[in-house]
Amino acid sequence: MSSRLHIAAFACSTTQTSTEIQSLRGRQSSFLTWFTRPMKVVERKRTPAEIREEYERLQREREERRLQQRTNPKGTISVGIDATDLFDRYEEDYEEISGGDGGGGGGGLPHIEINKMHISQSIEAPLTTTDTAILSGSLSTHNGNGGGNINLALRRVTSAKGWGEVEFGAGDTHGPLFGLKIFRNLTSRCFTTAHCGMQFSSRGIRPGLTTMLARHLDKNTMGYLQWRWGTQSSMNTSIVRDTKSSHFTFAVQLGIPHTFIMMSYQYKFQDDDQTKIKGSVKSGFFGTVVEYGAETKISRHSILGATVSVGVPQGVSLKIKLNRASQTYFFPIHLTDQLLPSAVFYATVGPLVFYLAIQRLVIRPYVRAQQEQELEKQRESSASDIAKKKQEAEAAVMLMQESVRRIIEAEESRMGLIILNAWYGKFVTDNSRKHERARVIDVTVPLQCLVKDSKLILTEASKAGLPGFYDPCVGEEKSLKMLYQFRGVMHQCLCGDTEALRIPKQSHRIDNDS
What biological-process terms (Gene Ontology) are attached (predicted)? Predict the structure, then answer.
């Protein structure tokens, strides 16, 4: 009886132990199955600190945009420069010398003067959701004589289809001004504007009326018809076509005293600097004017442009314009009253050489220094976060070692995909940037862990969010460089941080000769 009890107790104990062992093995098997199952590439979620910092930054930008929209300041400064003495004086000296005047030649430096200036400024002040007050003023001088005026306009949005505006003004040369302006959408493709004004002066009242009808001819083309009555009456029609890569304008005007035909074309380069080149021809009773020029973006908020104007009887002029946010600085430089090839040459080549020198010596170093300062601040603010993510990535890599070993064994048995070396971060390959330090991390193990059936597929999401990855250079351009073996043949590839990647590929193959 006692032996039977011992046998039963032993059997019960053995059964219980066997059950626990099987349970433990089951949990281990489940863990291994979970860890070695196909991994889905997902983007790493941001920490609360990152979310808070992003929210504060967006809030500041929103406040700045709201302030800009509420005031909408606009300003223009124009400075006219008379530089005709640079070229005309040499023609006069040559005529004097060829005429036998031995004492000819007006020595000394050329005389360059500012003969006209114009300054204007306007701001908006929203009164209600539909009413806005616009305050503007301007000052102008020409050869020592000038004047100014100040205007106040009240604009009301009457409906979704239109608005009306009342304008009051006063000046020291033209007297009081009263005007009305309306805008109205006639259809979804057509709108009209009308402006009526009365200028009071010592000579009486000078009325004026301007109306315009515009219509969308197609997705990128607009047609305009304008009629003006008053001191300078005219009828103008124009067609404007604006696309992503070009801008074309054709206009014809019949009027007193100006009647002309004009055609202009502008080509837009698809680059980061938003460079544009343009040319136009304008011919009428006043003569013919040919203009050509270019403009480019020199900083985040600044656009610089230069235009050469050649005409009869206007002569040769160089116009330089700088747009800084909503402020415009305009410098028309009159070079000569005649058509001199030397003036055209210097007006064309001079600004180009000057811009290239300034860009290389001033603009690029300044922009590079600003970017480095911003990156340095970003590195300092995110140093602790980078260190934390580095520890997390290293811990994830340690957990992947056993799984990667089995994946490599399976891939080697079928001559599959084996990641030999993989680096992620900022690579410095340009000779002009040798002073910069490359910041990369080894991601061979994490990528091998993502290999399934001799394939590796990465989405367009940032690679910094992959398991075992982290961002070693926050805010800078990053790449993924990889050396892998497939079917016993070496392959190599380099892709951007947000580029999709699918390997192996025949184009990544390294030839034996190379």
Answer: cristae formation
